[in-house]
Amino acid sequence: MSTPLTDALRPWWRWLFVLPGLAAVGYGAHGLLTAGGRVPLGSWATWFVGSALLHDLVLAPLWIGLGWLAARWLPRAARPVVAVAAAVSGVLTLVALPFVLARGRDPRNPSFLPRDYGLTLLLVVAAVWALAAVWAAVAVRRARG
Amino acid sequence: MTLDRLLGARLPGPPAALRRGPFREGAFSSPLHSERRAARTGVLLGLAFAVCFLTGLVSHLVQHPPSWWVWPASPSWLYRVTQGVHVATGLASIPLLLVKLWTVYPKLFAWPPAGSPARLVGRLSLLVLVGASTMQLLTGLVNIAEWYPWAFFFTTTHYWTGWLAIGAVAVHVGAKAPEIRRGLARRGSPAATAGLPAGEATAQAAADDAAETNAVPRRAFVLAGGLAVGAVTLATVGQTVSPLARVSVLGPREPGVGPQRLPVRQTAHKAGTADVGADYRLTVAGPRPLSLSLADLQALPQATERLPITCVEGWSANATWTGVRLADLLEEAGLPRGTEVTVESLQTGGLYRVSTVSPPHARSPRTLLALRLDGEQLAPDHGYPVRLIAPNRPGVMQTKWVTRIAPGSGGIGA
User: A1: Cβ–Cβ under 8 A, 6 or more apart, which residues?
Assistant: First the structure.
């Protein structure tokens, strides 16, 4: 067996994170396990694992698939701009989605979700892509020129 | 040493024929899937999580104060800032977390999936980190949309999972200390590859150099992350930073929109307090018990204060309130100023029917039993005929439709 290149005990400050971190995880787990009817563990576990899987099996593959398509079809000079526009519009869509779906809307409380979020999101995303299209066209032209 | 042997023992890998798709060597070609980008994004995300955790802890302590906790009545905007920061930082963490997970995504398909028991334990511990982080941000977002597609009580779950998340982040920082040190060192410096075997060090340095001139280069990566954080923040933060209200077109609330130009969380209809009749009385228990009609309250000396309503959901708005000072009323009832009291609502149920006014707030001359909002009689949704409005308290503790005040503690804030 060869000697490891790194010493597991170092740097010393790692223990200032690991030990309190383990304590916090233990405290949180204990709190969840003893919360009784307020935290049904089946529902908690569904959201805990489900949120991670939503990223790993849906969002990330979608993003990587789009990247693959962009690499195949777009001129090289346009790809940075398209990546930026996709990141901005994608994350805005994700954050606005619960407001667009508006499952919590209450007709007796017009102060909650006061806008048409579907239309607003569409306009914002369209503006982002319009800007990106101009920028990408300029970048491609420059790269050719 | 036996433990080392055991943890480091080589586990049998799956047959090589299964190594397909994302499991293939070099399946992820971008040099931005790197230790360097992971460490640098991680610093920002770690700071964001620390801010979220601490501001969340403050909110929890204000609503469920242990005996050692004292929350002041001044400055009146403090809770508005901490809770506004809590929700804004949580929203900004969504793009940061997505970027961070992207940088390390190829590791999900490492081959063999678990080379040793130590690796297996390490990967399972990452499930705690990723599960807690994604769940906190996702359920937090869905919660501010007032949509509850789960069987748990949100605040309890969010609080305990928050400890899990911050703990898992801390353990991760400790576990990845050498990688973080390398990732934060200047590119090309010896520290950037410290501790790596020679071959790996060369490959990593080459990949980091390639990231500068990649089709989507490092600068585009940083710009994408930065603009995504900026866009999410700008699109929502106006729900609490009112000058940006018109800019934040995707925020769930807009200060200035609602009955009497102020947003509402709990409606009178839901609380069952839409029709308060002439028989309404406010009772104050004490050595000289009081029973006051709305006209009696209007006849008492009135005070006007400009105080914010701050919802735990992250929106807030300032308003001008007029009514009777709580401290005056307590004195009238023969109670010393600063007596801890409970304030009870006419609403028949709900977790926030009763709130405790702690001594700093009971004593504060700015704590009102408000009868008017911006000069008008309170709208039913704002608590007609009488609501509590105190400086530096969350909205759930600004009890509406108040009907009884008594010394003691109970309900939210007890």
Answer: none
Q: A48, A49, A93: which to substitute to probe chain B, counting the most B Cβ within 10 Å?
A: A48
**Whole-complex ipTM:** 0.95
Residue B213 in tokens? 């001139």
pLDDT of residue A11: 86
CA gap B388, B366 in Å, rounded: 11
CA angle B376, B379, B382 (to 5 degrees): 110
Q: Coil, strand or helix: which one is B149?
A: coil
- What is the pLDDT, as a whole number, of residue B6? 78
- Cα B405 to Cα B361: distance, rounded to the nearest angstrom: 14
- A38–B157 C-beta distance less than 8 A: yes
Which tokens is B355 given? 């709130």
* pLDDT tens for each residue of B304-352: 999 999 999 999 999 999 999 999 999 999 999 999 999 999 998 888 9
Q: Give how far A42 is from chain B: nearest CA, Å.
A: 9
d(CA B13, CA B10): 9
Taking the C-alpha atoms of residue B106 and residue B125, their distance in angstroms, rounded to an integer, is: 17
B183 touches chain A (CB under 8 A): no
Q: Do residues A21 and B170 make contact, with C-beta atoms less than 8 angstroms apart?
A: yes
Q: Which residues touch B401 (CB under 8 Å, ≥6 apart)? A: B268, B271, B273, B276, B345, B346, B347, B383, B384, B385, B386, B387
Report angle CA B313, B399, B361 to the nearest 5 degrees. 95
Determine the pLDDT at residue B122: 84
B127-140: pLDDT as tens digits: 999 999 999 999 99
DSSP structure string for B346-360 = S--SSTTSEEEE-HH
**CA of A123 vs chain B CAs: smallest distance (Å):** 10
pLDDT at A2: 46
Instruction: Give the pLDDT confidence score for residue B115 in this predicted structure.
Output: 84
* The pTM of the whole model exceeds 0.80: yes
pLDDT of residue B20 exceeding 70: yes
C-alpha torsion B93→B94→B99→B104, nearest 10: 90
CA nearest to B390, candidates B381, B401, B399, B382: B399
Calculate how close chain B gets to A129, using CA atoms only, in Å. Answer: 14
Q: Which of B307, B298, B303, B297 is nearest to B262 (CA)?
A: B307
Set of chain A residues whose Cβ sits within 8 Å of the Cβ of B259: 111
